[in-house]
Amino acid sequence: TPTTLLSAVTSTGASKAVQCDAGSPAFLQVNGITSATVALQGSIDGTNWSTIGTALTADGLITVANAPKYLRANCTVYVSGTVTAKILY
User: Fold this and answer.
1) Do the Cβ atoms of 38 and 85 come closer than 8 Å?
2) What angle do CA 46, 42, 37 make, to 5 degrees?
């Protein structure tokens, strides 16, 4: 079952992190973007974060073949829309 990381957000900011099985695949689905940027970010320690792949500027899906231990969604730019991000890991 997918976990909601961002639920109808209308501002910038990162979601809470989820802990997944390191090395397993993960999928982030984002919708509701009118004018915003959402990045999937990963961390091995839960403190230092890096963007994985290319951030989304339109509704879409990011796939990670080998996820790190922690993942989160981060709305890095917000102008308009009601952004929702769900992750399956």
Assistant:
1) yes
2) 120
